[in-house]
Amino acid sequence: MKRIAVLMALAIAFFSCNSRYEQENDDKGNIMRKTSEKTPFTNYSLEMRGNFDYSEDGVQITGVPEGGYANYSYNDIEIEVRKGKGNAPEISIYEKGEKVAPESEKGRDLLEDAIGRMQDLQERYE
Fold this sequence. Notes:
Number of strands: 9
Oligomer: single chain
Structural class: alpha+beta
Largest sheet: 7 strands, antiparallel
């Protein structure tokens, strides 16, 4: 009986997973990419407009295109990237609703994971 209950719980967890990807181009040729994944343990989404530039080591965003942005959400973490002054990014990070400074150690760690996912999405669906 215990085995059946465990198998049922695993089956429910497996079938309740939801993952999707969308891509479209706007009238200016900007690529809009959206991906999301929802499981009993994870709630992740990423929406990007345009192609971003990254540092060689892949841990910093060095350029945001005109009209470009990224919205990243992973469980209790939310990161927004917009074009700031010049080509520099303007980055906002929140964890459980509390603002985290992007230049802090925690901010850099959270941002590094998001940037990895952004690069993967951008490279996979160019």
